[in-house]
Amino acid sequence: MRESNQSERTDTIINYRTDGTKEFEVLTKNGLKSGNGFYFDQNENIVGFKHYEKDTLNGYGLILNKDTFRPKYLYETNNGKRDGVMIEFYENGVIKSFRSADIFNDSQNIKFHENGAIKMIGQTKKGRGNGTVYYFDENGILEETIEYENGNVKK
């Protein structure tokens, strides 16, 4: 086994807006984006990030509400594409919806009322409602159950 004498080169890529404020910053290792890349508002507050591995988007990203700095979307990327977990939040930070894949694939889909109570549990097939979907009132009490097949109500 040989040890490498090469040292790792690190650098930073910074993108600026036309007004000169920083918009995005990410570290590089040996010329490849690596780690979290951060988005900034015009006051240089962090308003989101996305994760890179060897110049490819892999891992979780977060978009913050620009007024409250609370989460707006938490998403997963794999091999440069947004897929996997996607969580959407209300302005107050409560989870609004959760799905386990992008909207065009098979997925579990869960929605919540703004008070945090469960609103809907369902699943999709190729992005369309499929199977039993459960709907709940604002107290989390089951109100209705509907069967879907390829996005249409099953009769």
UniProtKB/TrEMBL annotation:
Domain of life: Bacteria
The protein, known as: Toxin-antitoxin system YwqK family antitoxin
